[in-house]
Specification:
alpha+beta; 36% helix; five-stranded mixed sheet
Amino acid sequence: MVDKQKARQKYQNTVNNAQGQAFEGYIKAACGYYERDKRAVIDKTPEPFRVIKKQRDGIFTGRFIALAQPDFQGTLSGGKSIVFEAKYTTTDRLKQGVLTQKQIEMLEFHAKLGAIAGVCGGIRDKFYFVPLGVWRDMKERYGRKYVTQKDLEPYRVKFTGAVLFLDYMCEKGEATVEKNYFG
């Protein structure tokens, strides 16, 4: 007999994985745009894993060998580093706990060295680049350990089929992540 709860969870995990992959694809599209525009070179950080067994037809068995680093890292025109984690949800809130302790530690380390560090997040149909300090201090700022679209409106970025994470939307003209960090 089929366990309906397990089947539902497996289905939801498959859907979530596909949506996360699509979200990362939108970010990769923006990375390509920024590189062509000579504004930045930013790459997806590979997952740390080791091949255990190779089979025919390019299939293999692998094992993760370390906790994941933040999803994207690179350099902006002018030499400033950027490092960020990508998180997406179809719910009405993005929870602070979706980042691992290792990811937070690495973001903090990069920020202390002078990098722009944050979370590129998506909640349903809107996208944001949240500075690390805002993400880290979520409980103090919002009184809870999650954020909603309304909370993140000041950090909303443009979407053109690509999540333009360096380009904030705002009512008073153009705003960029670089200007936000550089003053």
